[in-house]
Specification:
This protein is mainly alpha-helical. The chain is about 55% helix and about 10% strand. Helix 2 packs across helix 5, helix 3 runs antiparallel to helix 4 and helix 3 packs across helix 5. It is elongated, with a radius of gyration of 20 Å.
Amino acid sequence: CRIENHRDRQESKLPLEPAEPVGLSDDELATRFSNRFADVLRYVAAWDRWLIWDGARWAHDEKRVVFDMARTLCREVLLEQLGRANLTDAQRKALRHRFGSVGTIWAVVK
């Protein structure tokens, strides 16, 4: 029957068991980011803006430097995670996709 064949094909595409999550959560990444840059960055929620210490004053992040700093952190964490010996190819691909994602970087700075 056509319906049964379609259902069988769909079920065969499902993973047999859930993949073990790898990497860090957005919250863990944001915590690392905050800890690393605590001396030079401040987020002012009322203004929805980042401030950067320029050595003399807290200046607005007009050039999106904070986003680049978050991107750099995500790249470092990616390399750290890819160094784990027990990762499958699928997990490595998922890590590259996740830590290279604009959504992940954006979550770190928001």
